[in-house]
Each structure stands twice: as C-alpha cells, then as structure tokens.
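Blinded run. Sample ID left blank on purpose so nobody reads anything into the name before looking at the predicted structure. Input follows.
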Amino acid sequence: MLQTISQAFIAVIHFNGDVWQIVFTSLSVSFTALIIGAVLGLPLGTLLAVSNFPGRDLCITITNTLMNVPTVIIGVLVYLLLSRTGPLGNLGLLFTIPGMIIAQTLLTTPLIAAISRQITHDAWQIHRETFLSLRLKLFQQIKWILWDCRFSLVIALLAGFGRAISEVGAVMIVGGNISHHTRTMTTAISLETSKGDLSLALSLGIVLILVVLIVNFLAYVIKKMAENKYG
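Blinded prediction complete.
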C-alpha cells in the first residue's frame, strides 16, 4: 500500500506528455462547461427567484430534480441525441470533446441554477420593494440581483466546477474514453484501476485533488480581494 502511494507521488513528478494531455483535456472540457453553465444557469436561477409566472414552481422542481439526476442518465440521453440515428447525428459530435462539453453543460447548468436561485431569492426578499418602487424591468432586476450577490454566487460556480471535473459516467458514454482524444482524468482513473495500474490511477487522483484545491483557493483569494475592495 505504502509502496503504491510512493510510486503515485513519483509518477506525478515524472508525468509524460500523454498524461498531461489527459489533464489538459479534463480542464478544458470542465472549464468550458462551467462557463456555459454559468452563462445559462445564473440568469435562469435569478429569473426563478425574482419572477412569478404560471408554472414557476414546476420549473423549480424540474431544476432541483435535474440537479440530482445520475450522470449516466444524462450521458445516455446525450448519446442518443448525438448518435448517427439521433436528431443531432449529422453534426458528428459523438466521441468528441464538444460532445463531452454538451454533456457536462447539461450537468452544471441545473446545479448552478438551483444554487443561484436560493442565493438570489434571499437577496430578492430584501430588495424587492425597492426594485418594484423604482419600476425596474425584469432584465434590470436580474442584473442588479446578480451583482449584489456576486460574492455569494462563487459557491454556485465552485459547485458547478466540482460537478464537472469529477464526472465519470456521462463523459465515458459520450466521449468514449479514447486515448489521446477524449480521455479525461476521471475516465483514465477508472480505466487504470480496472487494469490494475493503481499507482497511475492514484497519481491521476492526486492531480485531480490538487486541481480542485487550487481552484478553490484561487476563488477564495479572488473573493476576499473583491470584498476588501468593494466592501
């Protein structure tokens, strides 16, 4: 056991180009999905928090449900959409990085929307009367609530990134875990563990943990700097 752990740390230092390509693929897919998920999820969550329209409760229920849907279910649905016989089969996105980004975006968007809805809902209760008295349009209300909650919404973004970077099932199904192309850290860990190469699997796990720690630390530093600047 100790020998495997020591070999894993040594492997981290001596990673070759193939392994770093896996790391780069994971980061590029996850960060792209996070950005798209934030662009879609933050306004959607705020819209559900500040507006009152028929079917709003149903939309909230659907969003909360999608937040907890198993990733393999999303993977199968995206696979059916992108397969040759699917409605988007002509795009040729199956077993490609863009296809993986689509799958991860479908995972991050509901999560970010659900968390941001709760955060902005609390702020809306505070500012509601003021916004209504100023007769701000819905777009303006969403904009100002997002700005007011910008520091707290970091939590939603971190949750979205964690959901994306740690995902296995959907990217395995949609990406195919193809070497030098669509293999990510999580799918590589799963593969190497099944092959019995525990030191390589553990070393990739160490890198994955370090990435999450670094992202969380940077988010914490940026948040503190912004809070000190804007008060």
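Unblinding after everyone has recorded impressions. The radius of gyration is 20 Å.
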